[in-house]
Design brief:
Layout: H1 2-39, H2 61-67, H3 75-106, H4 112-123, H5 131-141, H6 148-151, H7 160-171, H8 175-183, H9 188-199, H10 201-217, H11 220-225, H12 234-238, H13 251-271, H14 273-281
Helix pairs in contact: 1-13, 2-13, 3-7, 3-10, 10-14
């Protein structure tokens, strides 16, 4: 009995230490976010002089000043631009990547294995390798200063990760469903629309969520191609708070707008969390 009690005590101690470590790690990771949110409500003069999480004074002036935007353009315009970019990017990836994945997973055509291998190789290709050729190409088209360099590739299935994710999900679906639909007179495209897409909903939601997060948080491409304030995204507009010498003239406004910039991603992730987890973990047909 004593030995069994010692074993239970040791197991409880290990579990307790594990949970304590996870809690401490979680607090360490979330502290910068909490500090940013709290500091966005502090007066500028107290942001660094009073670094605690309990502010001595609360103000909304930072949000008012930050919402005025840059160069006469309200931050509401920047939010609208970002939401538009994300919506079109999601649409483009869902259409192009799902079609490409269906072709690789279900259709038989000459060179399928070769082109799939080429697509997989692009996953290991650093984005900076193609940066200069892409910029030269888009500049020759006259697209620099527009949304086109960011959105057009989304309709060409250039995100190999999403294609691979959808291929793996579609391959896990029973082929008997396709055969039954074919017997009923359904075409290949009809199978894609009526059988594959409804069953691949969790994977499609995962693609949509990742596309939103990556497009919303993308700074480098937006800095490179969005050159005029009326078409700035949120990520690009936040850069305007930083001066040429790296000095931030209004920390409060920068932190306030950064706090608002987090809200869409948080809301979308938590509202679609169930589909996201299912799309990542599913390896076979469930239901």
């Amino acid at each position: 009995m004593e030995r069994g009690s010692d074993v239970k005590t040791g197991a409880a101690l290990r579990h307790g230490l594990t949970h304590l470590f996870i809690i401490v790690l979680g607090i360490t990771m979330i502290y910068p976010v909490l500090w940013m949110i709290v500091s966005s409500f502090k007066p500028n003069s107290m942001i660094f002089s009073d670094p605690g999480l309990i502010p001595k004074a609360v103000t909304l002036e930072n949000y008012i000043a930050g919402w005025k935007g840059y160069a006469g353009v309200s931050f509401g315009v920047f939010f609208t631009n970002s939401l538009l970019l994300c919506a079109v990017a999601i649409l483009g990836n869902l259409i192009s990547c799902s079609l490409a994945a269906y072709a690789f997973a279900r259709l038989k055509f000459t060179g399928r294995s070769f082109w799939f291998a080429v697509m997989m190789v692009t996953l290991m290709l650093p984005a900076h390798v193609t940066l200069v050729p892409q910029y030269i190409l888009f500049n020759s088209f006259g697209w620099v200063g527009t949304f086109l360099p960011i959105l057009t590739p989304k309709f060409l299935a250039t995100d190999a990760f999403f294609v691979f994710l959808l291929v793996q999900f579609i391959r896990s679906l029973p082929k008997e469903l396709d055969e039954a639909a074919t017997i009923d007179g359904c075409s290949k495209f009809g199978i894609f629309l009526r059988i594959i897409l409804p069953l691949a909903l969790p994977a499609l939601v995962t693609v949509a969520l990742f596309t939103f997060l990556w497009t919303w948080d993308d700074f480098f491409n937006h800095l490179l191609y969005l050159t005029k304030p009326p078409i700035f995204s949120v990520a690009r507009a936040l850069r305007t708070f930083v001066g040429d010498a790296g000095a931030v003239s209004n920390w409060g406004a920068a932190l306030a707008m950064s706090t608002l910039a987090m809200l869409p991603a948080f809301l979308l992730f938590f509202s679609l969390q169930r589909y996201f987890v299912e799309g990542i973990t599913t390896t076979g047909l469930k239901g």
